[in-house]
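Course assignment 3, question 2. Fill in each field.
Student: A.L.
Task: Predict the tertiary structure for the chain below.
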Amino acid sequence: MTAEREELAARIRDLLADVPSVREIPMFGGISFMVNDKMVVAARKDGSLLVHVDPGRHEELLGYSACRQAEMGKGRTMGPGWLTVAPESLADHEQLSFWLEQGMQDRAGNT
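Answer field:
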């Protein structure tokens, strides 16, 4: 496990500490966090965050700094609703919380 991935995963664990039904599984080349059996985010090897969002908000969220269409391998883009957020946009608690909330809204049924 890379240090970047483990550090990000630890921060996600802290933010999800009070959320019921959280489960971690290896998926998408990282540590995926499931809430109510739905994938919310994944901490990736390079310290980036894979976020599964409402596909209807995909274009809006792509406008955020250091956010791009997620790929599963070079040139293999994932569909709408899959975003990758660069490590530099996850540097503080508020930034990571924002992206975690985006995934929770659609996948966990939370607002």
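Instructor remarks: The longest strand covers residues 38-44. The chain has one domain: 3-107.
Grade: pending
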